[in-house]
Structures are given as C-alpha cells and as structure tokens.
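W.,

You were right to be curious about this one. When I first looked at the sequence I had no strong expectations either way, so I just let the prediction run and decided to look at it fresh. Below is the sequence, 293 residues in total, followed by the output.
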Amino acid sequence: MEQNDYRPRRAEKKKRHHPIRVVIIVLLVLAALAFGVPKLRLYLAWRDAQQVDAARSAQQAEDSSTSNTSSQPISAASGSGSTSESSASSAAETDASSPADASAPTGSSTGGIDLLMLVNSTHSLPEGYHVELKTLGNGQQIADLIYPDLQQMFDDARSQGVYPIVASGYRTAEKQQSLMDEKVKSFVDQGYSGSDAEKEALKWVNAVGYSEHQSGLTVDINADGVHSAGYQVYNWLADNAWQYGFILRYPEGKTDITGTDYEPWHYRYVGRDAAKEIHNQGVCLEEYLNAVD
C-alpha cells in the first residue's frame, strides 16, 4: 500500500505591483516626454537653421568672388516678429526701415534702363549696358531700381506666412560662363555628345550677354527651407508677384516661344503696369512685346 504524502505544499507567491508604484512610473514617463519632446524639436529646428545658414554662406562665398559690390550690405528683415524667423529670412529680406517714399517705377524706362528690353537666346543686352546695383543681406545683388518693390513683395509674403529668399540675382559675365560650363558638363556626364550637351544646356542657362541675370532685373526666388517649402513660395509668387512689377519669365507651355524650360523660381522685373497687363493676358514677355509692337 502506497503511503500518501500529506506534506503541505507551499503556496506560490503571486507577484503584485503596488498601484502607487505604477502611478509613479507613468508620471515619470510623462514627465520625460513633456521635457524631452520640446528639446528634440528645438534641436531639430536649430540643426535645420544651421544647414540653411551653411548653404547660404557657401553660395555667398561663391558669388562674392565675381560680384561687384556697389552698396553696403543690408540687414536681414525683421518683419516676421521673432528673432529666429528674422535670422532665417535674409535675402531681399532686408531691413524694415526702407525709405517710406521709395516707390517703384511704373513706366517702361527708369534711369535710362528700358524695363521692357528683351533679353533671351537671340537678343543680347544693349552694348555698354550698365546698372546700379544694391547688395542684399545674403550677398546677392540686384538692380537698385527694383529694390523697393522686391522689398515690399517679400515683406507682404512673410506677413502671410511665406518666407522667400533671393537665391540668385545679378551675375557677372564670368559667373554666367561658369554656370554654362557646369551645365554642359552635367549633360556630357549623362552621355550627351558635346554639341547636344550645349543645346540642352542652353535650355537652362543662356550664353554670356544673353542672360537676364546680367541685367540685374531678374531674381531666382526660392524658399528659406525652414519656414516655407519651395512649392509654397512658387504658388504665392504665381498669384501675387505681378502686383509688385515682377513676371514669371518662363511659364509652362511657353518653351517654344521663350526658348527656356519652365522655371517657377525665375522672375523678371518689368514695372507694375506692364506686369499687370502681362498677367491679365496670360502671355510671356516675347508675346507681350510683339503685341505692343
């Protein structure tokens, strides 16, 4: 007969988590998140701003080697109302203390410069062309006569939450040739022959003497990369730039006429009256001048 084992078994202890301990752990996690997330956001914003500043510095160093300085650099705009936004917006974003009585010309000629002169792949700048330049806060230069309207346009854009910068303004002949050489090389590297590469390059960069950028009346406008994206700036400019005397120089669907592919960043100053007519008619500059003639 088997002997039954009547020894009592020890009851298994159940692990219990005290409710107060759980509450404390949850509170600590929430506190860490509340403190850490804002810090992370600030770090990311600081990092992005540093990258933008570095890119601008590189662009300024590149352009300053070939640009002629005709006026003192102007300070970054303060129209945004905060220090971080002001430092991120430095281009024609200039100081908000621009002369109140400095109004842009509305005629077709100012200071001996024909605002409606045609400069493209078949029409060069007039012989002996000269323009007074103004240097912006980021080192880019523009014709002094377009500054008031450009300043007003950037101020109004920023007041609506859009932050543009002048990525490229006036170019010397040397700078223009350098850009052409780089573009040709890029197409050669893609497998184009030398002659084909030059043809393709001319769709994006005009030859020396045939570029509007050498007139000082043209600006390539992009987003600051921190507060705005490119498409936001391009959309705003497409709707509003004409009110300040600027036209989209190379619209979509006009490549056969302008000889240049669509460039949503490339704007040419023609004065407010002409810009309004060109906008209302939905034409490019070549079409408008033919109609005027």
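Here's what jumped out at me. The first helix runs from residue 19 to 64. And, maybe more interesting for your project: The beta strands are 109-110, 113-114, 133-135, 141-143, 164-168, 218-223, 246-248, 266-269.

Coffee later to discuss?

I.
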